[in-house]
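Input C-alpha cells:
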C-alpha cells in the first residue's frame, strides 16, 4: 500500500481506507439504529405498506393485482400482526401534538389474512433485503428487525462513501458536501422501512464517487473507484420506479462536468470502465422490464386535487407553490409530514448549502459551473414537470424525499470541485470543519425534537427523558438520546480531526492507490 507514512509524512491522525470503512460502518449503523428505535412503528410515511410488501416478498409472494385499482393495489397474505401496521398509528398519525402512547397494544396473532398494499408493484430489491427481518419473527420484533436491516444496508453505502473519500479524494472539502447532503430526513428514512432512505444514501455514494472521478481522475481513474461507481449505479437503478431516470440525469451532469469526448475516449480504452458501464446498463434494463411489466409508475391518486378545467398556467402556479414545501421536506419534516423543525433550522441548512454552492461557482471551472447549476435546476424542474404532467390523474403527488437523489448532488458536486489552491486550502479546511460540526449539532437537535414529539407530543416537556410517562422507545428515551449524541459527536470528531489534523500543505487526502 502506498501511504502517508511510507512517503515520510507524519499526520496527527491516520486511518487506512479499510479502517475508515469499518469505523464509519459501525458508527453510522449505531446512529441509524437509534433512529430505528426512537420512532414508533409506522412513524415513517407509508411504512405499513412497505412492511407488508417486505414480508410478502420474502415469503415468496409477488401478490395479485386488485381489479379496478388502476393497477396500483396488490393483494398479499400476511399474518394479522403484520397487517396490524395499517391501524396501529392512526391515533398519532398526522397529529404532531399527540404522543405515540395513545397507540393500542400491538396485535400478536400470526393467523393469515389477505390484505392489499399500494407498493406491491415496486421494484423488489430493497424489500428482499429488509424483509429478512421477518424470517425471525412476525411480531413487533420482526418489524424492528426490518428497520435494522434497512439501517444495515444504508450504513454499508455510507461506509463505502467514506471509503471513497479516504482512499481517493484530493479535496477534503468534499466531506463537508456529503455531511450537508445527509439531511435529518435521510437518517429518519434510512432507519425506517422505506426504500427512499436506501435510494438517497446510494445516490450519495454514487455522486461522491463520480465527483472524485470528475475532479481528479478523468483520464486515468483507479480501478477500484470505477468498480464502486459500477456497483452504486447498478444498485441505485434497481431501488425505486424513478431511480433509472435519476441515474441517467446524474450521468449526463457528470458528462457535462468533464466533457463527453473525454468520457468516450476513456471508455474506449479501459475495459473496467466498459464493464462498469455495462453493469449499470444491464441493471437499468432489468429495472425497466420490471417497471413497465409490473406498472410500477402507477400510483394511487391521493395528492392535492386540481379541479377539472383548470388552465395549464394555473396548474403550474399551484404546483410551483409546493416547491418550497418540497425543499423543506428534503431537509427534514419527520413523521407523516407532521413533525417540522423550527424555521431557523431550515435557514441554517439552506445557508450551508449556499456556502458550498457559491464556493463551487467561484472556485470551479466553467464546465463544472454549468453542471452544478444544472443539478440545482433539475432537482426542482424534474419533479415540477412530472407532477404537472400527471396532476389530473393523481393530484399533486410529491414529497421532498422524492427529489433527494438529485438534490444531494448539489452540495456534493459543489464541494468536490472546490479549487486545490494552496492559498485557500487552510480556509477550505476550516470552513469544512465548521460545516461538519454544525451538521452534527443540527442533526442531534432534529433527533431530540423527533423523539420528543413521539414521547410527549411537540409541546410536551423538554425534559421528557428524565421522567416516566408518555411513549418510550424499547431502548429507553435517555439511553437512546445519550447513545445517539455520543455516536454523532464521534462521527463529527473523526471527520474534523481528519480535516484539521495534518500540517503538511501537500497532504491533501488519505493515501491513494489504484
Amino acid at each position: 500500500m502506498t501511504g502517508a507514512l511510507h512517503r515520510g509524512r507524519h499526520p496527527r491522525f491516520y486511518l487506512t481506507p479499510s479502517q475508515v470503512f469499518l469505523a464509519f460502518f459501525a458508527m453510522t449503523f449505531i446512529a441509524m439504529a437509534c433512529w430505528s428505535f426512537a420512532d414508533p412503528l409506522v412513524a415513517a410515511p407509508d411504512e405499513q405498506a412497505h412492511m407488508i410488501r417486505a414480508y410478502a416478498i420474502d415469503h415468496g409472494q409477488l401478490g395479485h393485482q386488485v381489479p379496478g385499482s388502476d393497477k396500483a393495489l396488490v393483494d398479499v397474505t400476511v399474518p394479522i400482526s403484520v397487517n396490524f401496521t395499517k391501524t396501529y398509528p392512526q391515533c398519532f398519525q398526522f397529529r404532531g401534538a399527540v404522543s405515540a402512547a395513545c397507540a393500542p397494544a400491538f396485535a400478536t396473532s400470526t393467523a393469515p389474512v389477505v390484505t392489499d398494499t399500494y407498493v406491491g408493484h415496486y421494484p423488489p430489491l430493497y424489500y428482499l433485503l429488509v424483509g429478512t427481518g421477518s424470517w425471525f419473527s412476525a411480531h413487533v420484533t420482526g418489524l424492528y428487525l426490518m428497520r435494522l436491516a434497512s439501517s444495515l444496508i444504508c450504513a454499508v453505502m455510507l461506509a463505502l462513501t467514506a471509503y471513497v473519500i479516504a482512499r481517493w479524494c484530493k479535496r477534503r472539502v468534499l466531506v463537508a458536501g456529503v455531511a450537508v447532503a445527509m439531511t435529518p430526513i435521510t437518517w429518519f428514512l434510512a432507519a425506517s422501512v422505506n426504500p427512499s432512505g436506501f435510494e438517497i444514501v446510494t445516490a450519495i455514494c454514487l455522486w461522491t464517487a463520480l465527483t472524485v472521478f470528475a475532479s481528479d481522475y478523468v483520464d486515468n481513474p483507479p480501478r477500484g473507484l470505477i468498480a464502486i461507481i459500477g456497483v452504486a449505479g447498478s444498485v441505485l437503478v434497481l431501488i425505486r420506479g424513478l431511480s433509472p431516470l435519476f441515474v441517467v440525469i446524474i450521468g449526463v451532469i457528470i458528462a457535462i462536468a468533464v466533457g463527453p469526448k473525454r468520457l468516450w475516449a476513456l471508455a474506449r480504452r479501459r475495459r473496467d470502465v466498459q464493464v462498469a458501464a455495462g453493469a449499470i446498463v444491464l441493471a437499468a434494463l432489468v429495472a425497466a422490464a420490471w417497471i413497465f411489466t409490473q406498472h410500477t409508475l402507477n400510483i394511487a391518486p391521493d395528492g392535492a386535487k386540481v379541479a377539472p378545467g383548470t388552465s395549464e398556467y394555473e396548474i403550474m402556479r399551484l404546483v410551483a407553490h409546493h416547491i418550497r414545501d418540497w425543499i423543506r421536506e428534503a431537509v427534514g419534516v419527520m413523521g407523516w409530514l407532521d413533525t417540522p423543525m423550527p424555521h431557523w433550522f431550515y435557514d441554517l441548512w439552506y445557508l450551508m448549502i449556499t456556502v458550498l454552492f457559491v464556493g463551487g461557482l467561484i472556485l470551479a471551472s466553467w464546465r463544472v459551473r454549468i453542471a452544478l447549476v444544472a443539478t440545482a435546476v433539475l432537482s426542482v424542474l424534474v419533479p415540477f414537470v412530472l407532477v404537472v404532467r400527471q396532476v389530473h390523474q393523481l393530484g399533486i403527488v410529491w414529497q421532498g424525499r422524492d427529489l433527494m437523489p438529485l438534490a444531494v448532488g448539489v452540495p456534493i458536486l459543489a464541494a468536490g470541485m472546490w479549487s486545490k489552491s494552496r492559498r485557500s486550502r487552510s480556509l477550505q479546511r476550516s470552513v469544512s470543519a465548521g460545516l461538519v460540526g454544525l451538521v452534527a449539532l443540527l442533526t442531534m437537535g432534529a433527533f431530540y425534537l423527533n423523539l420528543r414529539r413521539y414521547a410527549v407530543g411537540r409541546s410536551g416537556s423538554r425534559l421528557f427523558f428524565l421522567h416516566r410517562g408518555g411513549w418510550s422507545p424499547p431502548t429507553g428515551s435517555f439511553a437512546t438520546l445519550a447513545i445517539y449524541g455520543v455516536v454523532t459527536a464521534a462521527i463529527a470528531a473523526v471527520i474534523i480531526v481528519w480535516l484539521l489534523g495534518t500540517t503538511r500543505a501537500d497532504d491533501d487526502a488519505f493515501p491513494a492507490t489504484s
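The beta strands are 64-65, 74-79, 112-117, 333-334, 339-340. The CA atoms of residues 75 and 458 lie 36 Å apart.
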